[in-house]
Amino acid sequence: MDPETAAPAQGQVGPLESVTVIDEYTVEFKHKDPYAPFLQNLSGAYLSIICPTAVEEWGKDYGQHPVGTGPFILENWVPGSHILLVKNPDWVNIYPWSEHDGPVLIDELEIRTIKDEQTLLAAMETNEVHVAIPPRTEVSRLAKDDRFQIITDDNSATIGYLEINIKNPPMDELAVRKAVGYAINRKEIITASYYDLAKEATVPLPTGLQGYSDEIGQTYGFTHDPGKAKELLADAGFQDSDGDGIVERDGKPFEVLYLTWEDPIARKIAEVVQAQMKAVGIKVNIETYDWATLVNKQPEAKWHFEYMSWGWQDPVVISMMFKDYKDMGIYDIEEELPELFEVVYKIGVTPHPEQRVKYIHQALEMELENAIFVPLMSPYYVSCISSKVEGFKFGPFGRWSYVDCSFKTQK
Predict the structure, then answer these.
(1) Structural domain for 275, as ranges
(2) What is the pLDDT of residues 266-303, one digit of tens each?
(3) Bridge partners, 310 (sequence order)
């Protein structure tokens, strides 16, 4: 990889040493070490093959003039407004989830940018927009309206979880961290923040990925049990001696700092967690920042826990949660749990599926046993489709597929 290009996706190729063209249709990639996510990453948009002719023509502006091998051709792009795609007449379907051989049935596809929720709803209700991600607050109402179809997919590649700062007392005590885990009511959080459009996750891995295991979650993780949370806190020396509802130890109330970022869902999760912690005697103070500020605040180690969400289509997402993974994660606990990091590393370099799952399960068990994370949910993919449209499908991990789309014939 040429470092001068500063390609944002270069980390996805792994420890790549060389690329050799064997013949017109064969390319050899040589890695210094095995890199398990490589084939998965090659199938994604980040590492898709680009057109050298178009790169030569557009240079640094190629990103606004992409040329690919997909079912559509870029016709027009107005940043902040819309992208207009037209049918690629030469495209042949290779997607196993679609029935139509190609080319696509529709002549044009216009993708609009509509930031305001009420404007989006108005466009949907006037049939100006045919496919959209609806506000979750409106899904229940739209599902009862014959003008729309609500389509969901729970094969999620995203995980939301609480991250506990084991460097900051009293979170450096395992019993206290476990008390936090047992105080959490996932169902209540999902209802309040995602309007029930998410799946409970019992391990810190997206529910749609290889290696996800509710059995591990039930064995090593947490169920909602406030009584057990209070018992663990009492065993750790915390008591509510003054009757104000907040437990104390050595004369100090159990008061913690919860970091979150400026996002409606993250904020709602913080408020529900705050109430659930108060129910077992822990006072939670919430501080909200923009994402960049939150990232800078995190290494200060003054916080106690925070809500995090990561999404990727390969179990290497476990590595992304930690600071040492290509500067992506911000959670730095390698010194405290070196054994865990050894296992997490093996997930990335073990290509054999069965052996890789063993390492995934081992990492999940260690994360839950050490109570560094409290897994919460994997959000559903949700789309609202006009009833005038038929053939819309989800591809892998919630990707929209228009290959079989057409407008229903009036009868």
Answers:
(1) 158-379
(2) 999 999 999 999 999 999 999 999 988 888 887 777 89
(3) 159
* Tokens standing for residue 129: 């927009």
330 and 286 in one domain? yes
Instruction: Evaluate if residue 411 carries a pLDDT over 50.
Output: no
Q: Whole-prediction pTM value?
A: 0.89
263 and 333 share one domain: yes
DSSP assignment of 180-215 equals HHHH--HHHHHHHHHTT-EEE-SSSS-TTSTT--HH
Domain assignment of residue 57, yes or no: no
As given in the structure block, the two tokens for residue 197 are 């459009």
Cα–Cα dist 170/72, whole Å: 56
Please choose, from the candidates 358, 356, 303, 361, the residue with its C-alpha nearest in 3D space to the C-alpha of residue 331.
Answer: 303
CATH code for the domain in which residue 104 is found: 3.40.190.10
Secondary structure (3-state) at 4? helix
56 in a domain, yes or no?
A: no
- DSSP per residue over 326-351, as a string? TTT--B--TTT-HHHHHHHHHHHH--
Residue 225 shares a structural domain with residue 351: yes
The two three-digit tokens of residue 277, written as one number = 């912690």
- Does 162 lie in the same domain as 298? yes
Dihedral Cα 189, 213, 183, 200, nearest 10 deg: 10
Q: Which of 397, 363, 367 minimizes the C-alpha distance to 211? A: 363
Q: What are the DSSP calls for 103-129, one per residue? A: S-S-SEEEEE----HHHHHHHHHTTS-
Task: Please report, rounded to a whole number, the percentage of residues in the chain having pLDDT higher than 90.
Answer: 70
Checking 16-19 for CB contacts under 8 A at 24+ apart, the result is: none
Assign 143 to helix, strand or coil: helix
Count CA within 13 A, CB hemisphere, residue 158. 15
Cα distance between residue 176 and residue 165, in whole Å: 11
